[in-house]
Specification:
- By secondary structure, the chain is α+β, with helices and mostly antiparallel strands.
- About 20% of the residues lie in helices and about 15% in strands.
- Among the domains are: about 60 residues, no CATH class; about 90 residues, no CATH class.
- The longest helix has 30 residues.
Length: about 210
């Protein structure tokens, strides 16, 4: 009589074999999580820094005044927020990137507070300035004859009313002498922007020039 060999138990098939690659997978997943976390942290820090107002020469940042604008703004004007900012240039007055040197009255960098104010939405036009002139009788600086007291040593023939007119050169010029592209023209003023032979006809909506 032959005895039957008992069938092999199937319980062992239900127990998964341990994958030798498990440590590698866990390590890779950990590295990915670290990289994602560091990326999110860097993005958050960069966003926070971008949201901060810029600082000047190591001084405090610009701080706007969030106060509300006064009620009843004049027609054609907008409210400009005030605030506090760093004004001036570092001391000593080294040359900057464009070759400019800080003037004495611009040093050192200092904190300045400015109140809010109204400003025209657009430049003042010749037409608008003409209305102002008719209403007030104001005489602009360019229309007044310079006095010898204000310009001691100036030749008398130079003491005539006028203003500087932009005269672009037709060739490269050194930038250390503004007389290379500005010319003093006797008789130039807001009514005669290019000199006594010019006028503002057809330029009523142009910005007014030669005023101080």
């Amino acid at each position: 009589m032959t005895r039957k060999r008992p069938a092999k138990s199937s319980r062992s098939a239900a127990v998964p074999l341990r994958d030798k690659r498990d440590p590698v997978i866990v390590l890779a997943a950990l590295v990915v999580l670290i990289l994602v976390g560091w990326t999110l942290h860097s993005w958050h820090r960069a966003s926070a820094q971008a949201a901060q107002p810029p600082s000047v020469a190591g001084f405090g940042p610009t701080v706007p005044n969030p106060g509300p604008a006064p009620v009843g703004a004049p027609q054609g004007m907008v409210w400009i927020l005030g605030g506090e900012f760093s004004m001036g240039a570092p001391d000593p007055p080294d040359m900057n990137q464009v070759g400019m040197q800080a003037t004495t009255d611009g040093r050192p960098v200092h904190r300045v507070h400015v109140d809010g104010f109204f400003m025209d939405e657009t430049d003042v036009t010749n037409s608008e300035f003409e209305q102002f002139m008719k209403a007030t009788g104001y005489v602009t600086v360019a229309e007044r004859k310079p006095s010898a007291e204000d310009f001691p040593g100036a030749p008398p023939e130079n003491l005539v009313a006028g203003s500087v007119v932009f005269s672009p050169p037709d060739h490269p010029v050194p930038l250390d002498n503004h007389f290379q592209w500005w010319t003093y023209v006797p008789g130039a003023n807001w009514r005669h922007p290019l000199g006594p032979n010019s006028d503002i006809k057809g330029r009523e909506n142009y910005p007014v020039v030669h005023i101080a």
